Amino acid sequence: MLPSRPPPTGARHSLLLLLLVQIAACTRSADNTTKALKEVTLAAILPLTNTDYAWAWPRVAPALFQAVRLVNSDPWLLPGLKLQLVHGSSENRDGFCSDSMAPLAAVDLKLSHDPWAFVGPGCDYSSSPVARFTTHWEVPMVTAGARAVGFEHFAAVTNTGPTHRKLGEFGVRIQEAMGWRQHAMLLFSDNKDANDDRPCYFAVEGLYTQLGQHNVSIRERVLQADNLDYKEEVQQIRDNGRVVYLCCSWDILRNLMVQFWKDGVELEDYIFFFIDLFAEGLGGRGPVRPWFRGDPYDFAARQAFRVTLYCCCYFHCYYWFIVKYCGLLILTILCNCSCLSIFLSTASTLLFCGLCVLGVMGPVEMDEFGDRQMDFAVWDTIDVESGEFQVVCVYNSSMKQLIMQGGRSFQWPGGSPPPDVPKCGFKNDKPACLARTNTHVNMYINIHMCSNHHIYLVLSMGLESELAAQLWRVSWDDVQMSNLDLVLRRTCSRLTLSLKGSNCGSLMTMEGNFQIYTKTGYYKGNLAAIKYMNKKRIELTRKVLFELKHMRDVQNEHLTRFIGACIDPPNMCIITEYCPRGSLQILMESDSITLDWIIIRSVMCCCCQGMLFLHNSVMVSHGNLKSSNCVVDGRFVVKITDYGLESLRPSSFPEDTYAYYARKLWTAPELMRTDTAPPCGTQRGDVYSFSIILHEVALLRGVFYLDSLTMTPKGQCVHPRGQYRQSVLSTCPICLPCLFRGYGSNILDNPSVSYEQYANNLEELVEERTQAYHEEKRKAEALLYQILPHSVAEQLKRGETVQAEAFDSVTIYFSDIIGFTAMSAESTPLQVVTLLNDLYTCFDAIIDNFDVYKVETIGDAYMVVSGLPVRNGKLHGREVARMSLALLDTVKSFRVRHRANQQLRVRIGIHSGPVCAGVVGLKMPRYCLFGDTVNTASRMESNGEALRIHVSEATREVLKEFNCFQLEYRGEIEMKGKGSMKTFWLWTKGGETILKPPLVLDVNL
């Protein structure tokens, strides 16, 4: 029960205070079981400066802070909890909603404040990546901007504004109420490059989804606002639709309606629904006359707007709702936050499902997806003379009903709603209409001539009329890939919101439609399977016409629906229902699902019921039954396909092809023994094929898998006539329920068992793919660590920019091979490569034992540094000196493969000093060193001698602190660009003695 304490007064905060009472009740119940938290943080992600957005921070912030103060000032509301609000910006430099800035703001707020919930963002593109993050974090996200269809699949998103799914449901109810159950046309403007979040595209997506689910064929067309030919658009509407949904600017709508009037189109045959979710075209408080412009075309526009209905959200002041909704969201979340055990166990829209509170504009109710139940209003011209629009009908989304307002009714120019499909087609070219005219004339003549045969003639003419109408015929022009479908197909993801600048931008969930197992196309807006006929010409004989008529008449749940046939050369094909799960053969070969006995039983029942219906129909038999002709639809119902049309089947396959022999595996023995087998087979042959399919399903090892078993053939199965098989198929419906009591005939009738099976399969697949991913990631990281220093690679992996860094003191090593130029001239390129590879592989193995970093190798030069990128004090001098002695010792025992008797001689130079280091370039980036220290180290090497380590005075000062190296003063050496420098030879380390090699002057330096 609610507490008896009365809420504070004030209409301005009535919604807030009512919710505070509910919060207090929820908090009291939670105090007994969960310790209250001290702080509750909410994070708002909204446009920071652009007030053109109704949900921008300057507009919404006052309501947010007022709600925070109201909650924190009354300790009775949230005892022990303190509410604080933080915010981030979702706009880019140009002030528009950004799909890159919003997720960055969400991550920053999550890491810095760990909020319990997010408010915003307000745009579809910016909401999508934030929704993915919040769903992963299990943190609620409450917004009025996630309107697109796909957001219902994000568990953490709660939408308090109008959604396009609700708009689609509204369109379905309109269609049903007016008796429009066949066709609709969608006309919308779309500009992928604009910064408007493509509102019309996503609004039409909601209508497209919902109408398509209710078997309404859809024809859509994009209005190119920059180059719009209104006369062409009028012709397209006349040829493709009567019930038209438009989403565009008011100017485009008005110009289009004026063009309708100019062309003399009979407007009473059309109806236009103009979509304007936020009622931006209603204007001020004066009369609503969207057609009025004060120009010479006002009269034509007023007359044409009689067939235009205006659709928008039903509210009194949407701007005030935008300002107040943030307070509602904060307190709704807090109510759930106070119930800690619930909140911590699931942060999803389940917290908001079914919620209903009394707001300042009436009840605020949430649906099963956690979205607000938003009502829609339909405006119509009430007074023809004034042309004023008023609300005629309101769609209540909670009750899913259309409610007429104030005794008003729709003003249909023709007296009633126009049909969505004209009787004779949009182009008045249906063969039935043409045939019906001739048929009626002939019928009346025959009635006068033969009155005694009246009934016979009526029946006969009815059949002939149906044959002449050719209702099965499909024009190839109607089989196409439409614009909207192409965009949806390109998303290539079940839940993808593409970036704004891309060619895609759909939130549609196309489960199964992206796995195309056969040639497909779109017919009347629906995806269909297309089977081409290998014929150059089809003669429409009476037999062929009857076969096509029978295909259209035979319909069953377990048979694929025959849509029609196209006989226009060269595109002669059969068009049937497309089943997105593929064939039963593909299902058995798939690793994504395990066929347990429940699924096997379902397959057996579906196949059996489909074949029984086919055997009892005019088709009589199938003749080509096999596992690849048993297809699975989206509900996992198995359907029989490739039946009938005996005259259109290919006569034979070449006997040397795989297809010829493969199809024989399901063919009954008695049919293979005869040279004149019926094209559609026999019922006994179908029973044999059915048994082979059951054998496939049971063993899951392919057709006719025997392994090492020795099987004895049964006489009744190989009987020359096979008459004993007839009773097997007919008894299947009786036997199967006895074998599998307690299970439905469909896989989805047993959801708890099938879902558990699918979950187990998916877990195994996820674990396998995760292991493969981690292995590939390990290899990639290992390669990266070989190219760049470990610390620099970690920065790049975190997405950080590697800034150049200065180091006060490092030691650099240079070495090269004396006489390398002459040796290269006397050797082949492959031998030179082998030499350098052997030498540097040996060097690389040695330097791993020291705190050094290999910078690069250029030809025969080898460069190493110590003291960066990780500083090591003055140890860099010691590490490079020890490494140099080890390398020198290794070189003395190194032998060249193609010159085994030649001693390889190198000279080494070392210098210490400051450098600057950083990553240079974007392609093949390198970690490079810059500074005079690098040049000096190179000079030390070039002025050195064979098999000696040349050390500068700076390095000597570093090594003196370790007191374990013996150095010999060489003297002052004149170096290019440096002048005279004191240098030294490095001889020993730790008491070890290295013999001084003789001084040798080599002219090949």
TrEMBL record:
InterPro entries: A/G_cyclase, A/G_cyclase_CS, ANF_lig-bd_rcpt, ANPR/GUC, Cyclic_nucleotide_synthase, Kinase-like_dom_sf, Nucleotide_cyclase, Peripla_BP_I. GO terms for molecular function: adenylate cyclase activity; ATP binding; GTP binding; guanylate cyclase activity; peptide receptor activity; protein kinase activity. One of its GO terms (biological process) is receptor guanylyl cyclase signaling pathway. Gene3D superfamilies: 3.40.50.2300, 6.10.250.780, Nucleotide cyclase, Transferase(Phosphotransferase) domain 1. Its EC number is 4.6.1.2. It comes from the Eukaryota. The chain crosses the membrane at residues 318-335, 342-364. Residues 493-793 form the Protein kinase domain. Keywords: cGMP biosynthesis, Glycoprotein, GTP-binding, Lyase, Membrane, Nucleotide-binding, Receptor, Signal, Transmembrane, Transmembrane helix. Residues 1-29 form the signal peptide. It is found in: Membrane. It holds the Pfam family Guanylate_cyc. It catalyses: GTP = 3',5'-cyclic GMP + diphosphate. One of its GO terms (cellular component) is plasma membrane. SMART domains: CYCc. Residues 811-941 form the Guanylate cyclase domain. Its main location: membrane. It is a single-pass type I membrane protein. Belongs to the adenylyl cyclase class-4/guanylyl cyclase family. This is Guanylate cyclase. It comes from Gasterosteus aculeatus aculeatus (three-spined stickleback).
